Amino acid sequence: MECKDPKCPIHGNLKVHNLKLKGIVIKGNAEKTVVVEREYSTFLPKYERSLRNTSRLHAYNPKCINAKAGDEVIIANTRRLSKTKSFVVTEILNKAEN
């Protein structure tokens, strides 16, 4: 079965930029959108400590990849696809156990 989605980074004509992030899919309820949560740390020079932060990003989920909640994925930066989406899921690293 061939993917005919024009917004697919593998089979379509959507170009991705250099920025690639790794995160875990939190929500996958929408038809072609997933919410990916990633964890990162920032250094606070005043206290000489690192602070752990999380951010949630909306990403386009092509049907040929089809990431579900709990999957560890890599998302790549691309042109703005909608008001909130400017990332696309490129690959799944670890599938959820469900």
Features:
single chain, mainly beta, OB fold (Dihydrolipoamide Acetyltransferase, E2P), 52% strand
Summary?
The chain is mostly beta strands and 98 residues long.
Largest sheet: 5 strands, mixed, barrel
Q: Calculate the terminal CA-CA distance, rounded to whole Å.
A: 24 Å
**Shape-level CATH architecture:** Beta Barrel
- Series of secondary-structure elements, N-terminal to C-terminal: EEEEE
**Estimated structural class:** mainly beta
Helix-residue proportion: under 10%
User: Can you tell me the overall shape?
Assistant: globular
Mind explaining what this structure looks like?
The structure is a single chain. The chain has a five-stranded mixed beta barrel. With 98 residues, it is an all-beta fold. It is built from no helices and five strands. A hairpin with a 4-residue loop joins strand 2 and strand 3 (49-60). The protein has a single domain (16-94), classed as OB fold (Dihydrolipoamide Acetyltransferase, E2P), CATH 2.40.50.
